[in-house]
């Protein structure tokens, strides 16, 4: 994450054999911290997955806090609760493998 609040997110969708289905890169602007950038990256990655695949979803991130938020209510009352809720809405219609 940069001092101006910008960050970059890379996303890779793979099949069950590990072969790449697609890869994408996004710029994220106006983030307060790395956790917010991670949550935005997960949310944008989920939106792409839902468009391109019907496979079960495994989310990988280097942020254990962001990953924990997918299975618990740990961030539901935080400033990032709206992002977590949006990700969970995406997960509602799919099999999610934590």
TrEMBL record:
Name of the molecule in the record:
RNase H type-1 domain-containing protein
Q: Which InterPro entries match?
A: RNase_H-like, RNase_H-like_dom_plant, RNaseH-like_sf, RNaseH_domain, RNaseH_sf
Please state every residue range assigned to the domain named RNase H type-1.
Answer: 2-92
Natural source organism: Triticum urartu (Red wild einkorn)
GO MF terms here are: nucleic acid binding; RNA-DNA hybrid ribonuclease activity
Lineage of origin: Eukaryota, Viridiplantae, Streptophyta, Embryophyta, Tracheophyta
Q: Which CDD domains match?
A: RNase_H_like (cd06222)
One Pfam family recorded for the sequence: RVT_3
Source organism superkingdom: Eukaryota
């Amino acid at each position: 994450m940069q001092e101006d609040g910008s960050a970059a997110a890379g996303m890779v969708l793979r099949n069950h054999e590990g072969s790449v289905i697609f890869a994408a890169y996004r710029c994220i602007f106006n983030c307060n911290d790395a956790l917010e950038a991670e949550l935005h990256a997960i949310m944008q990655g989920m939106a792409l997955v839902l468009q391109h695949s019907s496979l079960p979803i495994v989310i990988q991130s280097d942020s254990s806090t962001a990953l924990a938020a997918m299975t618990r209510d740990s961030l539901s009352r935080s400033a990032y609760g709206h992002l977590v809720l949006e990700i969970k809405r995406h997960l509602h219609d799919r099999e999610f493998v934590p």
